[in-house]
Amino acid sequence: MPMHIPDPLNWIPAPPAAQCQETPSFLKRAGTDKLREVFLKYASLQRDGEHYMTSEDFVRRFLGLFSEAAFNDDSVRLLAGIADTSKDGLISFSEFQAFEGLLCTPDALYRTAFQLFDRQGNGNVSYADFAEVVQKTELHSKIPFSLDGPFIKRYFGDKKQRLINYAEFTQLLHDFHEEHAMEAFRSKDPAGTGFISPLDFQDIIVKVKRHLLTPDVKDNLVAVTEGHKVSFPYFIAFTSLLNNMELIKQVYLQATQGNRSEPVTKDQLLYAAQTMSQITPLEIDILFQLTGTVQQTGRIDYSDLSNIAPEHYTKHITHRLAEIKAVESPADRSAFIQVLESSYRFTLGSFAGAVGATVVYPIDLVKTRMQNQRAGSYIGEVAYRNSWDCFKKVIRHEGALGLYRGLLPQLMGVAPEKAIKLTVNDLVRDKLTDNRGNIPLWSEILAGGCAGASQVVFTNPLEIVKIRLQVAGEIASGNKIRAWSVVRELGLFGLYKGARACLLRDVPFSAIYFPTYAHTKAMMADKNGYNHPLTLLAAGAIAGVPAASLVTPADVIKTRLQVVARSGQTTYTGVWDATKKIMAEEGPRAFWKGTAARVFRSSPQFGVTLVTYELMQRLFYVDFGGTQPRGSELLKPATSLESAATQDHIGGYKAAVPLLAGVESKFGLYLPRFGRGAAAATPGTTTAS
């Protein structure tokens, strides 16, 4: 018994606002009042007291598409018809709001395409509807598709009177381009030999599969054939490979256990692809032929797949407060541009460092006091039993503000300290990254070590002043110590007391931290390599655990060297002297004092600092032609439609332009951009004066 598929008008309702979530795929519905305000801003026509948008109001003025003077008015009317469900050439507020709701649905791309073909607005697609839209596409004008052939009759019946509902339409649209490609092959092979020339192969792929081509693939279509005729199986495998590139990426990640930089051989990929029946050995052969013409190596990594994979139509909806393109291409990067890039990173790093330091400063104060607490060299009881006891006693005796004693000099110093660390790490990583975007582990460690060494210029003076202010609260006296008095007492050279210990701590810390952060972040990225802010925070915090704990002995030695020894306490002349005396007087456990407090301070501090740093780069985006933080790239539509999102694109309309671009890039339904222009517009679509 055939399965009954209900009428789409009844079984595909637009979800209410409560069901839309603010994620890359689902958008929160806009409020009615705000949406009406936007609608009235662009509605140029008024009839019987009601306002309406014309086709040009909606497509050209509101969406910002087809902005050329000689725009194709047929294409504009077709796109406007997606929202114009009454098909009267005008868009009412209720239709405008209904389309905003449709854009919030999880299958918004297919819904949008369905409404493009539903020319009568009755919830079905007839043969006449389908033919009308297909005949207006650029593809049909270049390689006409037989609208009387067996493919069409299988869907619409021999007499072409069958109506296609939404669910059936999605399959029709999926199959249409594969059938179009095969029909194009047959047209180039009239003798039925099963072969076409390399130039015919290029012509078909460029015209029929244009939406799946990246520049690297397009430029090597003839080269990949090696001058031989192209067989039908090879042709089908090639088009299937282009369609399945997202699946190929998953096979690669399975083969490398999620490592996006590990090169794999053909045999390794074939072995991993055994579980995927959609991927054939011929497709793997073609994949390595394609990458071989570009990179000429026997291995591929994730960046190779990204270079030949078509960009996805969706994008992560990220609001940018600023977006500047400093250079047109990486080739335009001058020395001055690189200096500007470092200055930009330094500024963002300063702000991020200040935020991170403020959040965890109370933990840092407890850590310092625990590390300065000595046993065996000072007459009297130990002040604190543990970190929690120290925290409570600071609150009791010094008040809540006592937890922030010494914060001001910390903020004055932490900004350049964190900024120089982040900037130098990024700078050295950029220099050691190859042209495929990969960097070996030793280079990551070297970049981190250089970052740690560079920061000591700022860290040491900052630390010695901060530490002396933090331990000052332990002495019950009426004299309040100020930061400036500490600086005057120490002098320039005194500010660098304990610099060797500081280097001993900061170089290995950064050498451990930054590579760990980069790899942890990559592991926590989604399947497209994108990192949500929470994954950035988690990666930064996780990386801080081994880095902070393993360098605690150096931190203890640095603290002892920089604190003023009170009467009866042991004094130290240098790193080695401090190491020997601490070991002799207090034992090896003394080197790990404050480890918990240090981890609880450094781990969240760097988590907050790194997430702030990367989010600032997303919000205040400047393209200097160099590398951007991995995981921050927005997936943009590869299309001729401009990305024209404005502040008026609220709710579901945030995704309107990417989704309309997706109708082109996913289904190949490119509409002509240029044509007769507004002069030929029908009375129902005239623009406001």
UniProtKB/TrEMBL annotation:
It comes from Drosophila pseudoobscura pseudoobscura. Residues 105-140, 176-211 form the EF-hand domain. Keywords: Calcium, Membrane, Metal-binding, Mitochondrion, Mitochondrion inner membrane, Repeat, Transmembrane, Transmembrane helix, Transport. One of its GO terms (biological process) is malate-aspartate shuttle. This is Calcium-binding mitochondrial carrier protein Aralar1 isoform X1. Homodimer (via N-terminus). The keyword Lipid biosynthesis does not apply. It is a multi-pass membrane protein. PANTHER family: CALCIUM-BINDING MITOCHONDRIAL CARRIER PROTEIN ARALAR1, MITOCHONDRIAL 2-OXODICARBOXYLATE CARRIER 1-RELATED. Solcar repeats lie at residues 340-431, 439-523, 531-619. Its main location: mitochondrion. GO terms for cellular component: mitochondrial inner membrane. GO terms for molecular function: calcium ion binding; L-aspartate transmembrane transporter activity; L-glutamate transmembrane transporter activity. Belongs to the mitochondrial carrier (TC 2.A.29) family. It is found in: Mitochondrion inner membrane. It comes from the Eukaryota.
